[in-house]
Amino acid sequence: MTTSAKDTIKETVTNNDVVLFMKGTASMPQCGFSSRVAGVLNYMGVAFKDVNVLADDEIRQGIKDYSDWPTIPQLYVKGEFVGGCDIVTEMTLSGELDKLLADEGIAFDKDAADKIREANG
Amino acid sequence: MKVADEITEKLTAAFQPDELRVIDESEAHRGHAGYREGGQSHFKVIIRAPAFAPMSRVARHRAVHAALTPALVGRIHALSLEISA
Prior knowledge:
The complex is a heterodimer of chains A (121) and B (85). Chain A has 121 residues and is an alpha+beta fold. Chain A has helices at 3-15, 32-43, 57-67, 85-94, 96-103, 110-120, and strands spanning 18-22, 49-52, 74-77, 80-83. Chain A has a single domain (3-120), classed as Glutaredoxin (3-Layer(aba) Sandwich), CATH 3.40.30. Chain A is built from six helices and four strands. Chain B has helices at residues 3-15, 57-68, 70-75; strands at 19-24, 42-48, 78-84. Chain B has a three-stranded mixed sheet with strand order 1-2-3. The longest helix of chain B is centred in the first third of the chain and has 13 residues, at 3-15. The A-B interface holds A 30-33, 68-71, 81-87, 90-91 and B 32-33, 57-58, 61-62, 65, 70, 73-74, 78-82.
């Protein structure tokens, strides 16, 4: 990983409470897995910064090295790697994501989160 | 060797799972990004093994990725994991 890619990633996850490294953008995802995570965050009303890895090859590879995680999407909360699509989905359904966001003082719509669980329960 | 067989072999050796299902979902992604003719590009793995009990979610996924080796993970376009202890 180049120093600049690592610095850019570190700066991005440090300066934004919630960051999603994804294929495409939050408004136009280009992969089903990225789309699912962005969709959950949007629905739960979580403000997040989206980083489109398809727009920058160095970031696309760099983020995999940074987290020691081979796939995209990748969700970060307060600088900490949370997981990819499977983990975010599981945490949403189990309520762990609510707890994480609440513990970190990040605003989200609890009713919307409950609706996701009702629809997938 | 088929990719599914390779996944099964590596995960069985690494974790001696109580349950292991390797599902080739490639056909469901026909026409999408990453689809290859002949399939073997999109997999769902359901694995249950006592070895995962002390691990966090992220650690469980990392352990599976490591057991599969980067070379094999790199050949799979999409890998969905359902891991339990």
